[in-house]
């Protein structure tokens, strides 16, 4: 599967809706970007370190986003050129997706997986709150993480083996931002469950057709103004949690 295909599908799905919306607020914090549209809907996406940029000008468009057309920032999904711009595009997409009345299930994500003793779980990106819950089931957990401060680093061979042999894969949605999502799912064997998780997750099941993804675990913004304030003050997921609604969606395998 071609790198960036999922974000391209997301752009095509939402560009018509984006053409009639404008950006009324945007905050870029240490952990998240948050964006609110003129209809009051808001979306989030994670901010990743952008090692490609060595300039003091991180975003030359800074100061021009508020009042711009939503479609102008949504197009960062396909031609953003950096993880940061893709995050702005994905926050825009998440604001467009999360309309009131969306049918969701907010149970804790691991309850959907029915993990059994000795099953193999590959976690791509550290979800610290889930680690103890997964291990308590007797499942064997392998964490694939790029940040050595969060988990031990695996060799490419160990990573490939963990993905190929797993029964359940839990993948951070930030793989969409750093361009590794399609590569990651391409390394999977035949897991019975594949979950894409985190507040960055686009809750749009149709864009994951013809992929092994069976579960989306994301978040909608319940209190946009409070969430944006927390982002602008450097807050992360723990501070945002009371102002989000965590969502789980079960997909038919593509």
Question: What would you say this structure looks like, in words?
Answer:
- The protein is α/β, with parallel strands linked by helices.
- Helices cover 31% and strands 20% of the residues.
- The strands form two sheets. A six-stranded mixed β-sheet has the order 5-4-6-7-8-9, with helices on both faces. A three-stranded antiparallel β-sheet has the order 1-2-3.
- Helix 1 (5-18) crosses helix 4 (83-97).
- The model is unreliable at 52-57 (pLDDT under 50).
Largest sheet: 6 strands, mixed
Amount of beta strand: 15-25%
Q: Pick out the low-confidence regions.
A: 52-57
Instruction: Tell me how many strands there are.
Output: 9
Q: Give me the strand/helix succession.
A: HEEEHHHEHEHEHHEEHHE
| Mean of all residue-level pLDDT scores | 90
Rg, Å, rounded: 18 Å
Q: Which strand order does the major sheet show?
A: 5-4-6-7-8-9
- Helix share, percent: 25-40%
Oligomerization state: single chain
The span between the termini is 13 Å
Structural class, please? alpha/beta
List keywords for this structure.
254 residues; alpha/beta; six-stranded mixed sheet; three-stranded antiparallel sheet; 10 helices; 31% helix; 20% strand
Short synopsis of the structure:
With 254 residues, the chain is an alpha/beta fold.
